[in-house]
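pinned: reference chain
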Amino acid sequence: MAEWGARLLLSLSCFTVLSSATVARQADKASGPRQFTPFWFSVEPVDTLAVRGSPVFLNCSAHSEPPVRVEWKKDGTFLNLATDDRRQLLPDGSLLIPSVVHSKHSKPDEGFYQCVATIDSLGTIISRAARLTVAGLPRFSSQPGASSVTQGDSVVLNCDINVDLVPFTRWELDQEPLDLDERVVKLPNGTLVVSNASEADAGLYRCVVENVGPVKTSDEAELQVLPDTGTDRRLQFLSQPAPVTKARGQDVLLPCVVSGSPAPTVRWMIGDKVIDESEARFKVIGGGSLHVMNLTEEDAGIYSCLADNGNETIEAQAELTVQAPPQFLKRPSNIYAYESMDIVFECEVTGTPAPTVKWVKNGDAVIPSDYFKIIKEHNLQVLGLVKSDEGFYQCVAENDVGNIQASAQLIILEHAPAGSPGPTPSAPRDVVASLVSTRFIKLTWRPPAEPHGDNINYSVYYSQEGAARERIENTSRPGELQVTIQNLMPETKYVFRVVAHNRNGPGESSSPLKVATQLEVQVPGPAPNLRALATSPTSITVSWEMPLSGKGEIQNYKLYYMEKGLGNEQDVDVGGLSYTINGLKKYTDYSFRVVAYNKHGLGVSTEDVVARTFSDVPSAPPQNLTLEVRNSKSIMVQWQPPPPGTHNGQITGYKIRYRKGVRKSEAAESTGGTQLFQLIDGLERGTEYTFRVAAITANGTGPATDWLTAETFESDLDESRVPDIPSSLHVRPLVTSIVVSWTPPENQNIVVRGYAIGYGIGSPHAQTIKVDYKQRYYTIENLDPSSHYVLTLKAFNNVGEGIPVYESAATRPLSVPDPSPMLPPVGVQASVLSHDTIKVTWADNSLPKNQKITDARYYTVRWKTNIPANTKYKTANTTNLNYMVTGLKPNTLYEFSVMVTKGRRSSTWSMTAYGTTLETIPNSPPKDVTVVSKEGRPRTIIINWQPPSEANGKITGYIIYYSTDVNAEVHDWVIEPVVGNRLTHQIQDLTLDTSYYFKIQARNSKGMGPMSEAVQFRTPKAESSDKMANDQASGPVKPGSRNTIPHREFGSVGRPSHSGSPTPTLDNNMLLIIIVSVGAFTIIVVVIVAALCTRRTNSQQKKKRAACKSANGSHKYKVNSKDLKPPDLWIHHERLELKPIDKSPESNPVMTETPIPHTSQDIPPVDTAMDSSILQRRNSYRGHESEDSMSTLAGRRGMRPRMMMPFDAQPPQPVISAHPIHSLDNSHHHYHCGSLASPAHSYLHHQLNPRPLANSISHIDRANSSELVRNTPGADPVPAVSQPACSVEQMEPEASFLSSAPEEEPSRNPPTAHVRPSHPLKSFAVPALPPATTLESPALPSTPLLTQTGTTPQVHSVKTASIGTLGRTRSPMPVTVPSAPDVPETCSMLEDADSNYETDELTEEMAHLEGLMKDLNAITTA
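pinned: its structure tokens
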């Protein structure tokens, strides 16, 4: 009892231990990753030939630990074997068809069968596809017929039957089975060949088909064997080789049966090489047919059967194609992955022809989509894994020979729980898309508020909006707060979220961020229907159609072409849709592609098309012509084809011309295209013959070789004894082979039929090879390295072998290659140094830490531009870890990669680095510069251009130069700036019937480019009268003014000009009366205005004096705007110009023209008196707003520093210009001592009398003041506090215009305000009293315009600088301004002023004068 209890206790203990171990194993298995399931086909079905009514088995067996369910598919459709009474599924998975059904109209069993194996809950795999073919009923298409054959000759007995039944065919002789051997052979089509016939071959022959149902026999045919009569019969083929295709590893029989007398010798050639029959795989049977066993790809080619009986030679050819079934170079591997990851199944196959690859998942074909992609031809990429992607994936490869499959399993793992429990990070903050492009988006974010750790990694999950699959991109290193998502689709919306990871696991996800990629730049797509057709032996015409995709007008096309197989691609710009390329090589293949480009750049390239130029006659003769005298009546002629590149077509044959001695009569023979020899027989004994050979193409005969001479033997060669010893023997040993070469025996009178080569280690009798008598070298293959071989060479004929010659050689040792591959360089960086230089640096992990190179390795750097049309790399070698790439294009993105080479080992290319070269100044000028006249405005032109071809950066602006003198210096041309994004500009107010020259210069951030060529444009001769009234106003008219523009002179007002400008139609008397009246009226008005100007009250004088004292104390003249109204004139201190405020319209201003001064010395003196018509222009003012990108010359002449004359420098001829301001509320400051009355009314008080004695009206340029200031170099605004100049003063009433006198002392000339006559705004030329004392005017920087006080008038001549337009130049209006006195403070002059005028009264008087001016205008117009 105790013993039983002890046993029970022991059993319980063992059970407990075993149970614990089982649970532990299960727990370990549950906690660890799921294991891959071994699952494959141990047996797959194979192609089968079945017989109708017979059973057939299709074998299939799957290996797996879990139970497997096997099904079958026929032609892609599952078979319902449960209800199929004709097909049975065997327990091992094989398929049995007990009785094959097959008829002419019903073939239910033929087709492709596949075995499908499934493991429930894991997946499915399918086998290769096996073809089941059912043999048809025997049908004889031809049967043997009665034949006769001469003894020793060959005969063929036909038995043509269904190809699939040939294996079931045999022959009988006299109703007995016929034994086949090397003399009696059955050809692949069932035909029987009997060679070297003898009397025993005579009898009744029949063909029998069996094992495919009832035995079927052909008709019996009697074969008679006739005795040999010795008469010669011409050679003829009874059976010739035909093109055949076989699979690698199979055997092939190439038939070649020849009949004739004497009996011919049959030789086989592949290409130009004679087949060595001593090789075990090649065997000549049946009198001439070639049997090749265990085919390889190297056996493919053109086979030639040559039959020669000494009298003639015939040849037949056929092509053998060797195909190879698919074979795996790399099978797909099992993969573990997590959801949202991207994976790639790799699969590499080879075969002939190239196999097609498709992928199958769990038995169903994988259809490529956005998430399942075929990459690198054969690999399967799955993006954004989901749980349903688990299963078995198969790579299926297929070609014409067969198909194979290989499978791999994908397991998607669950995220493992945290190893050490703890808090995970909170959500990353502020996730934003910092960079959005067409195909990539860069995301940045801030760390989580609660990271709970230091080494924080991040994962970015993203998907297309609305898609279920989510992909993942991880940061490259801990703490990185940005990632770039590549390979996105343009104009597509994506959803992004970021998750942080610490050692405890993933944390919270950020809020989803929706970002849409940009629209891709619409470069042109590929040009459709690209065709290339040869038009001659040296030209090809290429045509295409306009691309269907891409926005923007097609600017041009680039046609790329190159000789096929070479890398030197050339290109040509084409404006149309076709182009003919000349100067090509004859009968040569060329490849072509076309790329369209528009304003966005080069588009997508077309696929290459290949065309071949037409053939022509050969351009060179055959090579290496040799003559071999065979006997007393025949000579063998041999040659080589013309040099490569000179065939100019397919050589269809050769023409051999020969003659006896020096006779002129010739005989000719022709050969086939590949035959490189010809036996010329029927010659005379002991006679000298000359030969030459020419090649023939379909186009004709090419040049012939030089004549070569040989003499036939007096008698035939001796074959009664063996040949002599070969005259020489040379050997050249290699690693596994020895090249043997020799020369024939010196005694050429003994027949040599061939040579026997013996070789072996230590003994030459181990192996023997026989070669043809014409052969002079041979390579012995498959030898052992580092071995000593003894060789022997003997010549032989029909008598026997001659005396041998011996030689020995030792093969070279085998060099063992280093199996370890080189690692590619890492850390490749491209550092941009300049506009054409980038330095590429890298590191080599196979070097020591100090990166010191001690061996003979070198590095290859390759680079190319990142343009779709450009696929050609440039390379350079270096032994350093950096390379300076020079000669690059400016402002261009390049990509670089590096590889390392050491001895025969090379690495793969490294990761790609990118670098964009810096900008540099443009290398070319703007192109396509055109100038046209604006419709309806003959004085306005429009200039258009295109950007430079080599901009070398972003164009930031253009400068337009124009002049009437094309040979003028650059600084004398008028300058017009234009912003960089405009390609057109308008220039107005040019002179009619005048030639202008235009140049354009582009600039970028680096500087100015070259100028374009000068473009000439001549303005029209005349314009309409209404346009003359509006656009040709020229301001004040000076009698005697003249124009210095070359070849042109303009008369004064009322006088017809040479240019044909319209003039008043009044006669001279009426014009004289009007001028006198106007002059008298002007004098009266001047006297009235002068009298009014002398009146002022004492209170007003006190106010002015107090205001000036306030200005002396604070340097600011602060007066209420109500106390002082703005005068009609104000002076812009920066521009030194008089500008009017009033903007009354002008009815019909009169225009005159003024020459362009090139320098300040070219400025003409002012005339002595002003025309009386000046007073008629008091209110002649037309306001214009400038059009977009339009300006006049006067408004732009301020850009030329050469023409600026700073007043405070006090040059000999101080000049100011009167310019109007379109809008007084602009941002430019006008500094003055007076009050800034309002933001919209800024003006200056000058030390001139506010009431002008005479007013000149000028046609000022249409550019507003802001443009003028912007375009003026050196016009630097100064704060208002730095200009404390008070400029209100008294003027003498009896002041008058200055007289024209010779220039006296330059320093005593008073300043002159020049009215710039180029804009339809009124301006005033205000003459002042000359000083009474000697003019000594020290410069006062804060007061541009000053006056003097005195009693003695002194008149001086004044020079004025006419800074007017080039095309509409006008006479300058002089305004006499007295020089400044030598006083310490400007404002103290107010105390000495005698009179001033109340602004209200001045305004009233000016209004009255305005009415008088209108009346006068009406009178003169009528």
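why pinned: The chain has seven helices and 91 strands. The two ends are 157 Å apart (CA to CA).
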